[in-house]
Amino acid sequence: MGAMLPAAAAPREQVETTITLAAAQVTEHYVDVVEPRSLFMHGLRGLGSVAGEPGSSRRRSLDAAMQAEATAIGFKPQADLLIAEIMRFRAGRERDAALAAALRGMMAGLDPHSRLVLPAEMQPPPASVGLELTVKGGALTVVRPLPGGPGERAGLQAGDVLVGIDGRPTTGLPLPEAVALLRGALGTSPVLKVERPGAPAPLTLRPVRGPVQAPPSLRWTLEGRVAVIKISAFDGNTRTNLQSALDAAASRAGGPLEGLVLDMRGNAGGLLDAAEQLGGMMLPAGTEIANLRGRTPANARRLVSRQGDVVSGLPIVMIVDSRTGAGAEIVAGALQDHGRALVVGQKTAGAGTIQTVLPLPEGQGALIVTTARVYRATGAALDGAGVAPDLVLDEESGLLTPRSGSGSRLDAQTESEVAGAVSAAPSGTDTALLAAIKLVGSVGKPATSKAAAP
């Protein structure tokens, strides 16, 4: 059945408070106008997952409640129909599970990023299996096992698809819920059903959960006088760590840097403020990075550069891929829109929405609700569109080709030189990184901004 709300027997007052507060918060903060009736109807549908077999008395009652919901007038009568159905479940774990199912249903009617977060997810145990995961084409896919971690020791490989976790199918399972299922007590073993490309049949693996150190969110290397900085997530230390990396790279180079490669592959975002700060470090003070459009003042605002260009026009190439999302896309789009960086790799995820955590009462967890959409400095929507690189990497062939319309940034000689270097590279070479290092010396000073300055 999975994790549930706290097992204190939820009385009607608690259920009523939780449901009405959840609906009120969503109707106030959600990025689009949403009718309470729609929320409560989806809550009733969510109860269907725990209501038993068709034809049972509980199922018949639920069907009747959905019919009544369609015509009920007013917030309280509409809410009462859902609350009454939750109260039909026995007090204790059964009712707690029903309340969680109703809340999940309410969130499911919004968008893929809005969801219920249970207390167990907010305070995860210190043990997991050490996998970096993504959802690719609806499949829960291993990006890589963390070096030396439980997953690697159990034989998991990049490209493996986890089709089941402890008997639960993963198709359609949100990534955060899958991650929560993989966490658990130290020394325990989830049973993973794994499909591996080229394998004749699914594998069953049982990694032993252990303490897993998250990889650092920022790492750097030096290629000649070009600093290569890998940023895997935006957190509260990103701006400080980036400045430290730039200073350390310049010190090791023994003089001024000649270029900067920002590797944002696999960076799914993180703190919005950190993304704004990082983008602001590469653009003149006052330059628009992006703007948020939501229904409350906190979610309708411009993101602007406040610190100014700390690298003084240093040529920048940014590497992105299909897993680059949210805050990382904001930075990539801003630097591309203002002609400040050349973007290399694959089209980004198009995760151009902002989520806000709205706590539930009685320590019952929280709702993560989409509260704003992100628009680039050009005015283009980021959500669903992503950032198209100036130089596109074909995943299968490894070839890099200029995006249509990017010719103003790349001359024919540069294109030829980069294509030659990529085609001559040995198998297994990181062609995107190779191209970025070759290109950074050709980017030169920033081109004239393509986005209107504020």
From TrEMBL:
One annotated Gene Ontology cellular component of this protein:
outer membrane-bounded periplasmic space
The UniProt record lists the PDZ domain at: 119-185
Q: Where is this region: Disordered?
A: 398-417
The record's annotation in SMART domains points to: PDZ (SM00228), TSPc (SM00245)
Q: Which GO terms describe its biological process?
A: proteolysis; signal transduction
The portions of this protein that span the membrane are none
Xref: PROSITE patterns: PDZ
InterPro entries for the chain? ClpP/crotonase-like_dom_sf, PDZ, PDZ_6, PDZ_sf, Tail-specific_protease
Taxonomic superkingdom: Bacteria
* Molecular-function annotations in GO: endopeptidase activity; serine-type peptidase activity
Where along the chain is composition biased (Polar residues)?
Answer: 403-416
- For this entry, the protein name equals PDZ domain-containing protein
